[in-house]
C-alpha cells in the first residue's frame, strides 16, 4: 500500500506529517511513501531529502490523493481536501471531531476512515502515538523561549563587574505536559520557577524539576482532579483562594506562563486584569490557553500586545509550528507508530482492528459510519 503526505495549506502552518526518517521506518512496515512537492519546505525538508529516503515526490496534492491508500496530515482537512478522499481510503491527522462535526459527516459520506490523532487515548501503551503530548511539550518549551525573547533581562542571576543581576522569577500556571516542559526549560535557563496546579499529584514532579510548588491554604486541599488525569472545574471558594494567591505573586514575578485547561470547556480565567496591572513594567505573560479563550482576560489570540503599564502578553497559538523541524519529527514519529499498530503483519497492509483500544479510540469514521465518540478505553 502507499502512504501519502500532502503540503499543509493552513496559513502559517509549517509542519509536515512525514520526515525522511519516518519514511524509512514506514518502508520497513511495507509501505511505499509519496509526498506532494514542497510538503516539507517550511519545516526545512527538501524534496531531494525525501527522494534520497526513497519517497516518491508527486507534483500536487491531487496526485497524492489519487496514489495513496493512507493520507497523513497535521491540521484537520479543509473541505477541498476531504472531498478528494475516496471509499476505503484512510486519513490520519489532528481532527478535533467535537468541534468539526460537519467535516466528520463529509468524511463519512466519502466512505473514508478517519483516525484523529487528538483522540488517541492517553493510556500508557499509546504514549508513543500521543501527538497531543509531543506538541504540548514543544509548546511549553517554546513559550519560555518566546518569553525570553520579549523579556529584556537574563533568566539566570549573575554577579558581574558591571553589577549584580537577580534571577528572573517565572510562574507557571497549570503543570500538565506543556507546563512541565515550560518549568524544565525555565529552570535550566537559571530562573527561579514556581508553579501551581489544581491537581496535587503534580507537586512531586514540579519539585523534582527544581521548581517550587505553590500550595494553597485551602481546607479541601488542592484537589480539583477530574477523570483521566485531567482537571475538573474548581469550586467558587477554591477559585477565590487561587486568585488571592496569584494576586500576591503578580507584583513579584517577571514571567507568567499559563497553560491551564479543563477538557471540553473554555479555558478558566485565572490571570485577571488587576493582576496584569500589578505586574512590573517589562514583565511578560505567555498564554498557552489562548486557543480556548485564554487564562488571561487581556490575551488577544494570535497576537502580542503590550499593556499601558508595560506588560507584554503573548497569545500565539502556533508554538509547535514555530519549531516546525522539531515538531514534524515528533509528530511524524507519532503517526508512524500509529501505522505500526495498524500494520500487525508489517506487510504494508492496513488492518483496522476496532477491538484495539487505541485504534478504536482514535477512529472517528469507518466503513460509512461515524464512530465518535468512542467508548472509554478498557485498559490504563
Ligand atoms: P491539559 O492541557 O488539559 O491541562 C493543563 C493543566 O492545567 C493540567 O495539569 C490541569 O490540571 C491544569 N489546570 C486546569 N485548571 C487549572 C486551574 N484552575 N489552575 C491551575 N491549573 C489548572 O492537560 P495535559 O497537559 O494535556 O495533561 C494532563 C494530564 O493528563 C497529565 O499531566 C497526565 O496526568 C495525563 N496524561 C497522561 C498521559 C498518558 O498516560 N499517556 C499522557 C498525557 C497526559
Automatic annotation (TrEMBL):
Residues 4-139 form the Alanine dehydrogenase/pyridine nucleotide transhydrogenase N-terminal domain. Its EC number is 7.1.1.1. It is a multi-pass membrane protein. It comes from the Bacteria. Residues 148-315 form the Alanine dehydrogenase/pyridine nucleotide transhydrogenase NAD(H)-binding domain. One of its GO terms (molecular function) is proton-translocating NAD(P)+ transhydrogenase activity. It catalyses: NAD(+) + NADPH + H(+)(in) = NADH + NADP(+) + H(+)(out). One of its GO terms (cellular component) is plasma membrane. Its main location: membrane. GO terms for biological process: NADPH regeneration. Keywords: Cell inner membrane, Cell membrane, Membrane, NAD, NADP, Nucleotide-binding, Translocase, Transmembrane, Transmembrane helix. It is an enzyme of class 7 (translocase). It is found in: Cell inner membrane. The keyword Transmembrane applies. The transhydrogenation between NADH and NADP is coupled to respiration and ATP hydrolysis and functions as a proton pump across the membrane. Belongs to the AlaDH/PNT family. This is NAD(P) transhydrogenase subunit alpha. It comes from Meridianimarinicoccus roseus.
